[in-house]
Specification:
By secondary structure, this protein is α/β, with parallel strands linked by helices. It has three domains: 61 residues, no CATH class; 125 residues, Aspartate Aminotransferase, domain 1 (Alpha-Beta Complex), CATH 3.90.1150; 223 residues, 3-Layer(aba) Sandwich (Aspartate Aminotransferase, domain 2). Helices cover 40% and strands 14% of the residues. The chain contains 16 helices and 17 strands. Strand 6, helix 8 and strand 7 form a beta-alpha-beta unit. The structure holds pyridoxal-5'-phosphate. The site of pyridoxal-5'-phosphate has 13 residues, from helix 7.
Length: 460
Amino acid sequence: MGMAALEPTLIVRADIWRLVSFALEPGSRVSVSQSTQTLCLQEATTDIMVNDNSASSQPWPLPPLAKRTSQLAPSPTLALDSLAKEMKRKGISVVNFGAGEPDFDTPAFIKEAACRALDAGFTKYTAVGGTPELKAAICQKLRQENGLDYSPSQVVVTVGAKHALYELFQVLCEPGDEVILPVPYWVSYEEQIRLAGATPVFLPGLPERGLKIDAAQLRTAISERTRVFLLNSPNNPTGAVYSRAELQQLADVLEGASRCWIVTDEIYESFIYTGEPHVSLPSLSPALARRTIVVNGFSKRYAMTGWRLGYAAGPQAVIQAVTNLQSQSTSNPTSFAQAGGVAALTGSQECVHQMVAQFRKRRDYLVDALRTLPGVACPPPDGAFYAFPQVSAVFGHRWHGHLIDSSAALSRLLLEEAHVAVVPGSAFGADQHLRLSYATDEASLEEGIRRLRRFWQEIE
Ligand SMILES: Cc1ncc(COP(=O)(O)O)c(C=O)c1O
């Protein structure tokens, strides 16, 4: 049966075609019954082959998607992580330096609290912005650890810190607004800013300052279009930590920019290896605190990435707007995950200290080993759990004939040929670098380094 003969039937049944085409595997065969004018799957086959679900290869293209999503780049770190996991599933031994999540299990007392909540039937909707217990625990944490005084109405619990950030950009930005974003930056910021119709203004971190920005740069970048300044310290991907003095200098500039909101992403606050305590920007200036929203979460600090729990704290009007947005989208974060969150914040923090001690050892091992690779520069990061070596010295060289001309090309070769997953610096706006997470066990770290050494020896 020829394609042309089938077209009228399928056009009539386009709604069914759409449903069926999503359910089909590439290469599936579809049979059309002309007599009943229905489309059905049968063992007997015709010559319609389903190649994939992309609009261009379908015989009858789908209607267009909204621009805001069709132009959206998927998270490169998550894509790489799932590729590495897929290779592992196929039996390939991959050393995964790509993941942005602690390899530790969630501490038992947190899991037990969530299980108890489930057993007690805590399985219904909660207040949209989080349970009173969790909000109270967050307020107490922010007061005790960060010197920030918030009432529960100034806190919203979200489905991960990523969700809090997404909602904040939606609430704070109009199309045409600018968001100042220090580079290198975490992968999701740029897309989230663009999704809100705003424009990221990239402020390159200075190599002589460990890829941090300084006050003079910030002063120059701020204009009347600036709606948000976004700070992430400790930083993903560099691990850079802004000192109190550096933050104070930024705060002095920001105090003069009265139409600019400040968002500080403090999700790595527990992972600092300098011995200095974490400093939260709004704690330095009450004037600034009125315009600052602090974002934090449970994923990194308590190894709770899969629980999807985060929060934002700031001016009540902003938090109310975020809560309203949440009420029309996700509703509350998962009820029993919130019970786990209460236990995490109110229980012993010894689990966090133990994890940080492990990360410090791994950081030292990984950084020392990376520095032995020819052409690789890697100052020890002060925080988070990533090494961010500069590898651009090997650009222009070849590995078994393959040209290494970018961090993406190098990462691809490392994954495909050395079975080592790393994230290209280009994902963070810094093509000269790679990001390696040391949130992975010692044996994998050692094996990963062995493979990197072998790979580097074979660079021509
Ligand atoms: C800098 C930064 N902010 C926010 C997040 C989001 O964390 P989550 O949504 O898991 O709470 C991440 C996760 O990798 C991150 O690295």
